């Protein structure tokens, strides 16, 4: 009986020895290493999945689950990116519309300024031309002052009405009266009427 117990003990000893000498220390070591790696921020789960994916029988389950999750994450990210891009496009379209409106307003302002400048230039040219004519008529009227009334009247009758009126305008009332007095009565009357109309317009 004692021999039988000793034989059973000897048979169990290799199993217990294997359990306590190899399995327990390996399990303890794995647990300790896992805790240390987790504490340092290492993705142990990802590493285990990666290693499991390399095992032929297990890889199909791991790959299928991870693939589904990765696809969901990718879809979510893609939708978010599309929404962001749509929002950016809308914002850029609004900015473009605002800038086009601003450009149109500036173009209208430029056209108005160009028209104003052109009008001012034309007015100034007219003023300059009128002043030049006036100076010419002043200079010419001096000649008429020194001229004989009959001669002056004859010349004025032959001139264009506009020129004759401008010269008469530069003469004083007395000289003008003398010249009109010796003129043909019809011409003198017409010149006088036109002269008075011109004075009224001014």
Automatic annotation (TrEMBL):
tRNA processing found in the keyword field: no
Record keywords, A-Z: Membrane, Transmembrane, Transmembrane helix
Transmembrane segments: 15-39
Record-linked InterPro entries: Mg_transptr_MgtE_intracell_dom (IPR006668), MgtE_N_sf (IPR038076)
Pfam family, one: MgtE_N
Source taxon at top rank: Bacteria
Domain Magnesium transporter MgtE intracellular: 142-193
Compositional bias of kind Basic and acidic residues: 117-132
Record has RNA-binding as a keyword: no
Region (Disordered) location: 117-149
Protein name: Magnesium transporter MgtE intracellular domain-containing protein
Organism the protein comes from: Virgibacillus dokdonensis
Lineage: Bacteria, Bacillati, Bacillota, Bacilli, Bacillales
